[in-house]
Amino acid sequence: MKTKELIERLQDADSTGELEVCVENKDIYFVERKEAYWDGRLQRIICDPELRGKCYSVVDGKIVSSGHKVELILMGIEDIIENDPDAPIDLSDAGSEEEKARWEKRIAEWRNEMRLIHAELDPEFRLKEIQEGRDFFNSLEAYCMQDPGKLNPYREYIKGDSYRNWMQGWLDAAANYWESMGSD
Question: Under a CB-based contact definition with an 8 Å cutoff, are residues 58 and 79 in contact?
Fold first, then answer.
């Protein structure tokens, strides 16, 4: 749909211009012009103009990488909580008490999930995780070297110097990165 058609249809749907506009119940955070290939190719649908709006009218599809597109950037409650797990959410107009309770439960789940993710991104947490990974790698290597019958395919792979050097280099680089993130 072209921008002029979208504007026309929005004005047909709300001649006052005062209604909220959403896409899949998410608010439009901002609008951005981009190259058609940016963030994935533009996926266009081709409709029969005589049927559009009356019934299923799609007759073709097209993947487009040339030209430009206007993208509506959406944001919903889950997105707000993803950025700030403690953001206030107003449920005063959410509907019945039952509906409010469903939203409260859903929001609490999102908050808990995001708090865990935020904790995992914390430099001190990451350093501990890296050390545990290093400990696990060393334990697995020792285990595999003691008993050739156990985890044989892994033993052959893990005992190679190139893999060990690569893994140790990666762990050291990751540890240095997270250490630098923690020091201001």
Answer: no
| Cα angle, residue 15 at apex, residues 47 and 18 outer, rounded to 5° | 110
pLDDT digits (tens, 9 = 90+) for 59-86: 999 999 999 999 999 999 999 998 888 9
Residue in the structure block whose two tokens are 């919903």: 76
Q: Which residues contact 143 (CB under 8 A, 6 or more apart)?
A: 150, 151
Distance CA 18, CA 14 (A): 7
| Burial class (CB within 10 angstroms; exposed 0-12, middle 13-18, buried 19+) of 45 | exposed
∠ CA 144-146-151 to the nearest 5 degrees?
30
Residue 59's H or E segment, with its range, is: strand 58-64
